[in-house]
Amino acid sequence: MGIPAANHYRVERDTGITPINKRHTGARIAGMAITGLPMPRSRIQYAATLRIIDASDVIVYERSGEQSEIDSLELTILGDLMRLDVETFRASYGLPDDQAPADE
Question: Per-residue pLDDT tens for 1-27?
Fold first, then answer.
């Protein structure tokens, strides 16, 4: 086995602060008034972005989506980072090979 992927890549995540879906509290209150039963609250969803960053701080993979989708993807990627070597990890996610550093 070669170099562990966790030694070469890291995962970062950004979660938005503005909800994707609007809450309709008026409809909830009207439903409670009509039926007399408490109406369930809608779950607020936020957008999130997941990035894989290599050892030279270059973003090599980026994916945006709904928060629960990104949660699942993040767990999968973190699991792969811990168990795969660099070459297998690159192949799994279609990441580019390292470029040789430029001489200054």
Answer: 688 999 999 999 998 877 776 656 666
- Provide mean pLDDT across the span 25-52: 76
How far apart (Å, rounded) are the C-alpha atoms in residues 75 and 12? 12
Question: CB within 8 A of 93, min separation 6: which ones?
Answer: 52, 61, 77, 80
- Rounded distance between C-alpha atoms, residue 4 and residue 20, angstroms: 37
Starting at the edge strand that comes first in sequence, how are the strands of the sheet with 46-54 ordered? 9-19, 46-54, 59-66
Return the domain boundaries, the chain.
5-93
Kind and range of the H or E run holding 51? strand 46-54
